[in-house]
Structure formats: C-alpha cells, structure tokens
Amino acid sequence: MLFKKLGPLSFLFIILKCLNTASAQSPQICDKAPDDAIKNACKNMANVMVNVSNFIAENPLTKGMTQDSASDRPELKCLNQSCVCPYYGGETDGSVNGCTLPNGQKVQKALRKEIRMISDEERNELFKAIRDMKDTSDYDYIAAIHKLAYEQGGAHMGAAFFSWHNEYCKRYEILIRKRNPSLALHYLDSTLDSPLPTPADSVLFTDEFFGTTNEQNYVTTGPFAPWETLEGNPYITRQVGQDGRFLKDDDIQWTLSQTKIENVMAYSEPSAKCSYEIDFKWIEYPHGAFHDCIGGDMQTVFPNKAANDIIFFFFHCHINKIFVDWRLTRQTRSQRENVYPADLADCENPAHFRNATMSQFAPFKNIDGHKSEYTDNMYEYAPKPTCTATTDCGSRFLFCDRSNDAPRCVSKVRPGGNCNGFPNADICYNSTCVNDVCVVLSTKAATTITATSTVKMTEKASTTTPKITEVPTTKAASLTEKPTTKIPKVTDKPSSTVKPTEKQTTVTSRVTEKPTSTVRVTEVPTTQPTRLTEKPTTKTPKVTENPTTTTPKNDGRNHNAQKTNSNHSNFNNKDSRETNHNYKNTRN
C-alpha cells in the first residue's frame, strides 16, 4: 500500500537517503550555533531525514493525495494573467497579462503587503477566501503538497529552498484569487514582533488575525477554528514562544548584504565531506527558529505538519520577499534567471540540483523558480512598514517606536499582554499599559488613574482613589462587583444635590449636571470616598471594570491571555462559533 502510494522512485529515494545518514551533517555541529533558538532549529533539521522512513510507514498520505497530486492542476502552473484568466472566469485579450472579469474589472498582478497594513475589509475577504479553500479541500490539497515535498527532500535544506517556495506560494495565491482576483497572499514580517518583550503577545494572536489557543494548545478562536488538519486533528496546534524566536532585522540585513549566491541559496544541510562550512546566518536557520517559536504544527521536528497552520503561508510569503529583494538589488535580470549554486552531492540532496524536477511541480525544474515572470506578471511586494519622528506606521495594529535614534514600526500588544519597555508609546491594542500589562478599560466609563502610588483596578485602593468621569445615566456605574447596598435610582429631575448620609473622611461625592445626559462624579479631597448609596459605608471601595473587561493578570507568558473585547473581525464562521463554546480560551 505504501509502495503504491509513493511510487517506486520516491520509495527508493527514501531508502537511499536513510542509508546516507551516516555521511550527513552531525547534529553536534549545531552546538556552535550563536543561540539556543538557532541551535535547536539546526538539530531538528539535522535529524529530519533520520526519522523520515519511520514517519512514512506510520502515517500514509491522507485524503487520497498521491505523489503526483500536483500535476492535475495545470492552471496553477501559469506565470502570467492571460494564462490564469479562464480560471478566474474572465476573458483575455491575447496579451500577456490582459484579463477582464465579467464585471469589467481588469485583473492586475497581486500586490503583497504586510498583513497588518491591509484594510479590515480586505483582511476579512482574504480570510473568507481561505476558509472557502478549506471547505472545498483546496487548502488540504496545497498543504499535502508541502508535506510530500518535505518528505522527499527537495524543498528544504538546500539550494532549491527559495525557488521551490516561490512557486509554492504562487500556486497558493492563485487558489486565493480564484475566489476573488483582487486579493493577494500578504506577508507576515515577524521582525515587527521581535522587539516586543513577549512576541507571543503580538496582536497577531487575536481573533482579528490568527486566533488564540486553549490549555491543550488548540487554536479555538478566530476565523480558522475549527480547522481539521491533514492528520485528522480538529484544530491547529500552537505553542507560541516556548521555543525558538522570531526573525530579527539583522537576519534579513545580513542576507541582503551578501554578494555570493551560496550564502543566499545555501547548502543548509551539508555532509561532513562538503567543502562549504556552515554559516548559521544562512536564512534557513532563523527561518527554522521561527517555525519552532510558533510551535505545534509549525515546529521543525519531523513529521512535517507546518502547512496545517494558516500562519505558514503568510510567513513564507515574507521569506520569499527576502529572496526577491536580494535578487532585485544584487543581480541583473540575466543573473536572476541563470545563476545557480553548483551541483555538489557532498553538500546537498540531488533533488536540489539546478535541473532536478521540482518536487510535486513537474515539469518545472528548480532553476525555473528563478524566472522573471514571477515578479513581472504574477506579484510584487509593498515595502515593510516604516515611520518617522513625525509620521506613524499607517496601521492601527502597529505603533512607532521612537525610543531609539531610528524610529521603527513595531506590532501592538494584545489585551493582557506584556507592554514593558516602551514608555509613552501607544503599544497596547484597544487597551492601555498599566503596570506593564495591556488593560482593557471600560467603554462605558473612561477611568483616569491619578495616584501617588499606582492603584491596580482589581485591588483595594488604600492611599489614593481613582477619579471616575463621565458615568452614563442609562445605567448607574457600579463601583464594586457586588455592592453591599443598593444604588439609588437617579430620577429625571433631581431637586437638589445628592448628599451622603454619613460623615466622610476623605472624599465627598456629589452629583452635578442634569442626569438627562451625564452624571459627573467630581472629587472634593476633604473626606473619605463613598458610594452613591442610601446608606454609604466608610470603607474605601474597590474599583473594578465591567466583568467583561476585567483587567487580565499577566503571568509573564503567553498563557491565559484574554480575547480582544472590541473591534473584532467581521468575518464569522458558524462552525467556529458552535465549536468554540466547547473549549475554554486561556492561552495565546
């Protein structure tokens, strides 16, 4: 059964690869890596092919996918808009990129932006299209291709890493644009998240983007939950921040500065006989560290499940941007299409050789992934978000960090996340930084904390009392979770100021203004604070938020973060809503 599914050549390749394990790179060389994240990624990569035969035996291909599954989708091979036009339901005028849709819209090449820079409408449409891909099995089809290519060794740990993923992302984008030709596969630039004290607290891990996880590490909220994986799990799994790290600016700048192609299209997994010594700055190593940082299905430990997680495609779209940027700045047009690292059997799997057939993409050869048609006709990249001393990043999901000499855009932190280290910056998304935690303030009462020592909103105030302003009259503002006495009903026309019935020691509260609009509570710092009750007590009240917006505790990690309370994505999925009630969202 296994032999029939994989085919004789593929099966023989796996056997030979396992026999060659002894001459492959030793995991011990990974101990020379500059940090634990790169070291672990290196070791995982080195151990991948050791485990491949066992995995294939225990996990036959799912959902009827076969070795040649990609060959029956000719529209995905297109390298211009005229070729793909009928697939979009349009008509071509015969020119290379001439394509007109039934509504009269001219199809343009995709403009790939950082995911946080697109409009809410486009993000919702994009996620809706991907959800439809899942519902119609197109997503499983494309995810299985990556699974197969990984197992056969032609897409990772060698010179074809960039060219294979370039073609792969293009095919994924065509599947998206079949649903809406105005969309694009946008990129996730994790260098925007790496400056955060806890990158796992990024706004990316909210319901507006990629969802949050529960105690079982299942992604149970957001537009991609539930999401059955190729292995049959009901949800994507993630363990963000428990291992690895996000990409850093230095990782990318080093790659862009290289003049030798072997340092870009690198021999990432050479044998001991290879004449090239490993450089841990080769992009495939920090790329692996990001996979490990997302964890779960994305982790680099074999078996490969990375494409199960929707984040995979947005991340690899950014990896492809690095390759494109390097080519456009360091190579001529002729060099882009013809220059390729030498075919060295001691340095890489022969599946990475220049004229080897791209795994799963016959008749494409590895060198074909360098054609200029990709950027001429199919897509282009928008620059990374930037800001200056006077201009912001242009996205409500980013803030401008001006604490250094060079201002930079950084991802905002989700409610409940760690906001330490960025004083006076608008770091918190839909929340406010209080005691290094992003706190969601009430939408019914704007709370101003004025204190000689900071008062936590969930703790009893002992030395200072927060000033409450603008309390709506439609509901009496509750100053405690469960008041000991009833709050008197405010009448339409009070004849006099409401006075407390007992002597105060710190603050006397009085009601001013007509309650037909707003009741304003002001401070008179001469007596002790009291509730506006018929029989106020002399005890200093707790100040809490509405239970739906209680300040989350920060445990220093990515666990038990609260779900964003406002401005949620307009995208909804019936199955997601029904299933999410069965799981408690406590993490990520």
Characterise this structure.
The model is unreliable at about 1-25, about 60-65 and about 445-588 (pLDDT under 50). It is globular, with a radius of gyration of 28 Å. It has helices at about 1-5, 10-20, 35-60, 80-85, 120-135, 140-150, 160-180, 250-255, 285-295, 310-330, 335-340, 375-380, 575-580, and strands at about 90, 100, 110, 380, 400, 410, 430-435, 435-440, 445-450, 465-470, 470, 510, 520. Among the domains are: about 1-200 and about 240-380, di-copper center containing domain from catechol oxidase; about 440-480 and about 540-550, no CATH class. About 25% of the residues lie in helices and about 5% in strands. The relative contact order is 0.12. α2 packs across α3 (about 35-60), α6 packs antiparallel against α7 (about 160-180) and α7 packs across α10. The strands form 6 sheets. A 3-stranded antiparallel beta sheet has the order 11-13-12, with no helix packed on it. It has a two-stranded antiparallel ribbon with strand order 1-2. It is mainly alpha-helical and about 600 residues long. The two termini are about 40 Å apart.
